[in-house]
Amino acid sequence: MEKRINTYLYPEKSQYITGEEVWLKVGIGKKEENVTVQLRIFQMEKLVRTVSAVWQGNEMRISAGTFSERFKGFGAELWLPERKKGGQRLNCAASTAFDVVESVSDSIRYGFLSDFDTKDGASDADLDFLLRCHINMLQFYDWSFRHDKLVSTETIYEDMMGKRKDFSVIRGKIKGAHERGMKAIGYGAVYAASKAYAQAHPEQVLYTFEGEAFRFIDIFYLMNIEESNGWHEHILEEYVSAAEQAGFDGIHMDTYGFPKEAFSQKGEKILLQEEFPGLIRDARIYLERKGKDCYLIFNNVGNWPVNTVACAPQDAVYIEVWPPYEKYHHIREIIREAKAACGGKKQVILAAYLEPFRLEEKGELSEGMAGYAARLLTAAVVSMGATHLLMGEEGCALTQGYYPDYTRMQEPLKEQMIKYYDFLIRYMNLFYSEDMQEVSMTHMGWDNYEYQCHFPWSGDGAAGRIWTIIRQSERAKSISLINLCGCSDDYWNRGKERPQVQRELEFTVLTDGDVEGIYLATPDKEAQDAVGFQSDIASYEGMNSLQYDYFLTNKGRFVKFTVPWLFVWAMVFIRMK
After folding, report:
1. How far apart are CA 204 and CA 326, in angstroms?
2. 440-455 pLDDT, tens per residue?
3. Helix (H) and strand (E) counts for the chain?
4. Residue 542 burial (CB < 10 Å; 0-12/13-18/19+)?
């Protein structure tokens, strides 16, 4: 029987380096032969390249060529001939995105794997899903034998939580990640050890003021990371072992948040925030000394201690978000502070786990509310210039700090989240470029005439309003619109009601110059279904032109335009001449 497939388009690798040839995988659901198809490549609103190919069979790969850009996101669309009344025309049948960067660390999208039993090696569907999400760094969570001895001497073993592992599956997943352009990052807690190791090395343990050994969930003993302590060198050697024997490209240096202060066996007080930067520095030295690729992600649990480690030699500022950071405005605050702490030189990644998925799975939350929570939070994180660790395995979402307790998403939501990740890649130069300054709270409202609107809005994620995030440079302006209308609260980790569709949203923007064009894009499939945004040039995810008018006041030259429709997330782009 002939294999039936859905029409699809996605890159063969999660990310491309400057000058590398870009290949895309293409599949067409219906049988087509000797038909010329078009691959259209976009950068922002501009069609920059068209590749034609003669279709044979159901599946093929198409080269988009090479690109000289050092930091650029592109949209890719597959256009197929379609017979309609009055003749034949091309129609966009599938779309995706890809990015071209000088270095992997320039743009990090973090995902996870946590299942490494023998049966988990039978399929690479998990890696293929993450590839479609453009995940380019992949955390291998709890892959190790012990936290104090990462690599087991046996192929089959149980980790410290009693979960069965197959080292050959781990090696296979690392190989598969590399084939898809992903960096494999091994989980390695900085100060956790088994009871047996702690009892054999009491001088390496962290203690309370009363001299009790610090323990986490009564399984992990916390160890002294001071440079003068034996644990410091021990854990660094374990990181090297993980890179050499497993093949990891780097380490996820996990912490637990508490304690922030502890005592050595001799009763000397230790301020952990002062010790972490040296441990990160030495981890890089140890790994690079062995000639290994070295990508380091350090976990700032609860947003601590970002100020002391942000400038340490790690590849991102990674923050695990916990109460009291509970509301959307806290997400904004964390991202802005992290960017300031690292001077805007590193990717900010939020690990904000979504409990609504678990509650919905248990029947404690109405169906669909977890999905809207995920879409709104992703829109907020990306629009603020960060990325979100949420997705992993085969279409699964993190719901809490222990990753194997993930929740599998329903197929429609999986596809919609892929579109959200396409969106962040396609328009990464608006979300992540250093020259796009975020001015939401200083250029709109009160007597700020630069941006004005005529609908309920907020600059910090207030419930019942449209969250408006504004970024601008000398020749570009972007307005991200996140629809919180219909949401009864502004807690990011609660299920969210279906947003109330907003229509005819009027804006005026001070330009004091000529506009080349004003465009609207959205990752929401509902927009295509309801409004039919797709044109003869670009899909609904592409930049669709908006009509605008100039007018003059005693404050300057303005443009006025209207956004016709908003469901969850959309973005306006203004290009200046």
Report:
1. 36
2. 999 999 889 999 998 9
3. 12, 35
4. buried
